From TrEMBL:
Protein name: Cation diffusion facilitator family transporter
One Pfam family in the UniProt entry: ZT_dimer
Provenance organism: Thermoflavifilum thermophilum
Taxon lineage: Bacteria, Pseudomonadati, Bacteroidota, Chitinophagia, Chitinophagales
Topology relative to the membrane: Multi-pass membrane protein
Keyword terms, alphabetized: Membrane, Transmembrane, Transmembrane helix, Transport
Compartments in which it is found: Membrane
């Protein structure tokens, strides 16, 4: 069976992470630098998290079934959370190892050789991380993006380590090594926290402001005259799949066939402009009411009861509300009450 693009990418990440970990471990054995050991420890976590990410990509690609009607995409949030937790633990272990230096000082060896090895790993990690983030956005895949961000973090921390090693090389101050290790530990702990936070946000269906802005902008640009209003707009993400539901206000005199056609048109519009594995839309249709007349753009409406006054723009402020915009407490409420 042919492997998907996601699986091939994660296999590449896993293979390169294993190779770079071996190089960093060899560099530590040659130099006895705690900072290099800290970097190698983080790379070991890279291997574990890459394996978790690869498995989660496999699960997320499984089709929907009776027990998982929305698919298996949310497993990616568990993967990101596990990755963040492991990174956080690695950061704590790095800090503990750095503090041990002050109890048992040491001298570095073969520093030039170690510097060249670490420079090599930093360059490869930087290229790999940038590639994973770019491909993760193209697919899109939260797991691949998360793994790419993690590897970029590893590349940046390795770059900081390289600067510290160069400073030690030219100054002879070995005490910089544990200080650099503490810095790496703090950086790793911070990154682990953010990944765990991102995982919790996804599992709790926290709103994605960037995605909402993207979809609302699409709706506003392609707004039809007979789409009187859209409100109670919500998006849930399951891996690279989206579940979207909203309320669409149409003229109350439309036939069922006309309502169905407008529903399908709106659904197709969203699917064409959202690059995702699958976008599922549930659109609840509301009939218009007299209070809709002042912002209804159907100027030749045969049942209009009040004159058109203004076009209310479809912005995130209004679209997310679970009510018609004229019912919001913005000064239009008094006008709406007068129409009852």
């Amino acid at each position: 069976m042919a492997w998907s693009a996601e699986k091939r990418i994660m296999l590449l990440s896993l293979f390169l992470s294993a190779c770079l970990t071996l190089i960093k471990t060899w560099a530590y054995l040659q130099t006895y630098s705690i900072a290099i050991l800290s970097d190698a420890l983080e790379s070991i976590i890279n291997i574990v998290t890459a394996a978790l990410a690869m498995y989660s990509v496999h699960l997320a690609a499984l089709p929907r079934d009776i027990n998982h009607p929305y698919g298996h995409g949310k497993v990616e949030f568990f993967s990101v959370g596990a990755e963040g937790a492991l990174i956080f633990i690695a950061g704590v272990l790095i800090a503990v190892k750095a503090f041990q230096y002050f109890l048992h000082p040491y001298s570095l060896q073969e520093l030039d050789y170690g510097i060249w090895l670490i420079a090599l790993t930093a360059g490869v990690n930087l290229l790999l991380g940038l590639y994973l983030v770019r491909r993760g956005k193209q697919l899109p895949s939260l797991t691949i993006q998360g793994n790419g961000q993690h590897i970029l973090t590893d590349a940046y921390s390795t770059g900081g380590l390289l600067l510290a090693l160069l400073l030690i090389r030219f100054s002879g101050w070995d005490w910089i090594d544990p200080i650099a290790s503490l810095g790496i530990g703090a950086w790793v702990v911070r990154k682990g926290y953010h990944l765990v936070r991102r995982s919790i946000s996804g599992l709790m269906d926290e709103a994605n402001p960037e995605l909402i802005d993207q979809v609302v902008d699409i709706l506003a640009k392609h707004r039809k005259t007979n789409w009187i209003d859209i409100h109670n707009f919500r998006i849930q993400q399951y891996g690279n799949n989206y579940h979207i539901d909203c309320h669409l206000t149409l003229p109350y005199y439309y036939t069922l066939e006309q309502v169905h056609r407008e529903n399908e048109t709106l659904t197709q519009l969203i699917r064409e402009h959202i690059h995702s594995g699958d976008t599922e839309c549930f659109i609840h249709v509301d009939p218009c009411r007299p209070y809709c007349c002042p912002y209804c753009q159907i100027l030749d409406c045969p049942v209009r009861q009040h004159p058109f006054q203004e076009t209310i723009p479809w912005t995130k402020k209004y679209v997310l509300l679970n009510q018609h915009p004229t019912l919001e407490n913005t000064g239009r409420t008094q006008f709406s009450e007068s129409l009852k």
